[in-house]
Design brief:
2 helices, mainly alpha, extended, about 30% helix, about 80 residues
Amino acid sequence: MTNWVETVGHERGILQFRWQRLDRHPEPGEGPVAEVVAFDRVAELLPFHPSNRITPADWALRIAARQAGVADRMLA
């Protein structure tokens, strides 16, 4: 599944990760790592970059689905 962090223009913020259905507590070094890198280095630093890409059209569909899901929960 393609994944990303969408900043929607914010330069600062908080990332929160959920760990679900783990059989044990994660050991140090097993969790996510965040690093700010130059855009032109992203492909070289992500091992699955060639198979983990999304088109602008697919991205727009995902955002629309997320917005609809939020609206359904908030307006129901």
